[in-house]
C-alpha cells in the first residue's frame, strides 16, 4: 500500500507541472484512477501492470503539454523499483 501512495504522490507532483487550467482535471482523474485501483481484481491485474499504466499515461500527458519527459524520472524510479 505504501508504494501505491508513493506512485500517487508522484503523479500529483507531475500534475503541478501542467498548465494551471488543466491541473484540476488531471488531479481529479488521477484520484479517481487510484481509487478504482483498490477495486481491481488482483488475480486478473497485477499492481506492476497498474504502475506501468500510471507511468505511461503520465508520460503521455507530459508530451501532450510539451513538458520534458525527464520530469517523470522520479515517477519511473518509484514505479519500477
From TrEMBL:
PANTHER family in the cross-refs: OS01G0342800 PROTEIN
Family statement drawn from the similarity comment of this UniProt entry: Belongs to the complex I LYR family. LYRM9 subfamily.
InterPro entries the record matches: Complex1_LYR_dom, Complex1_LYR_LYRM9
Span of domain Complex 1 LYR protein: 2-56
Name recorded for this polypeptide: LYR motif-containing protein At3g19508-like
Annotated CDD domains: Complex1_LYR_LYRM9
Pfam family, one: Complex1_LYR
Organism: Camelina sativa
Organism placement in taxonomy: Eukaryota, Viridiplantae, Streptophyta, Embryophyta, Tracheophyta
Amino acid at each position: 500500500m505504501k508504494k501505491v501512495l508513493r506512485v500517487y504522490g508522484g503523479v500529483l507532483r507531475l500534475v503541478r507541472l501542467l498548465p494551471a487550467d488543466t491541473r484540476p482535471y488531471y488531479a481529479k482523474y488521477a484520484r479517481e484512477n487510484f481509487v478504482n485501483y483498490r477495486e481491481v481484481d488482483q488475480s486478473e491485474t497485477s499492481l506492476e501492470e497498474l504502475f506501468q499504466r500510471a507511468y505511461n499515461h503520465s508520460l503521455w500527458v507530459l508530451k501532450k503539454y510539451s513538458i520534458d519527459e525527464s520530469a517523470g524520472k522520479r515517477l519511473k524510479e518509484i514505479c519500477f523499483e
